[in-house]
Amino acid sequence: MHATSQKPSLTRQFKLAARPVGLPKESDFTLVETPLSAPQPGEVIVKTSYLSVDPYMRGRITGVRTYADPVNIGDIMVGSAVGEVIESRDPSLQPGDFVVGYWGWQDHAVARAAGLQKLNPQLAPVSTALGVLGMPGMTAYFGFLEICHPQAGETVVVSGAAGAVGSLVGQIAKIHGCRAIGIAGADDKIRHLVDDLGFDAAFNYKTVSDYVAKLKELCPQGIDCYFDNVGGDISDAVFTLLNTFGRVSVCGQISQYNLQKPEPGPRLLGQILVRQLKVEGFIVTRFQPRWPQGIAQMAQWIKEGKIKYREEIVAGFEKTPRTFIDMLEGKNTGKMLVKA
Prior knowledge:
The chain is α/β, with parallel strands linked by helices and 340 residues long.
């Protein structure tokens, strides 16, 4: 049994203070202290251990409903977290248990036990429930395999390849016998992809002026599968080199998230038609009933040494907004977390 913390009377929370214009600023969030209520039957109090920062959060603070309700001004900022139960009024959880849930940016929270997943710290570090064995890992696993259906010998291109999701997609492609080509925005990220994660090749889009020429060089047989995290000019270039019956999994459009006006781009439907492409977007929650299967497979691959992961952990709850902004600017390699 893990030692438990004394229940505090207050919790610190980051709330949305303003709608970001372009890249979010730290002043778009405000740190407040509010009383921590007592748990009711079926509830627990959790002390946050780790907070996740993820690209999808940028879309949730625009004020426009997409696939989920937006965060309103004055609301607690959304996000997944891992924490320790310090008080329980539900028989399924005991003080000292570690759980993952969606209680947002607060250092203590009252949460419904039914909405939490109990973790086993003996199987893997609890932080992995926010990364390789959590939502990002399942995004890579199901978003790639279920939509792209990779076949041995095919060429797979991954944009945003050094992030929490993209870094896993390339490794899953290698497990399935594919060539994996990564695109990222720093030379040290390129070295990490090739030297540490086993990508066949990668390039820094910030130092390459002609994406089409570079992709032709690295993909002489064309591109069969594209896992798209970024959109924009990079994706426009990839589409020109997709083979007939190519598959595109649209996971994110990071290049567009902080623009004040939509960026004009080429009209792609003609290429989709003549190349008979499959292009499909997805939200990972659609696969949620099957997450246990995906988590078990990813854990097995980690145990076998076939999947490697990197976590960048920033210490200090008060640094959460800054860490979120750094992630949006691509300053992370692998999964970025805040240690509360």
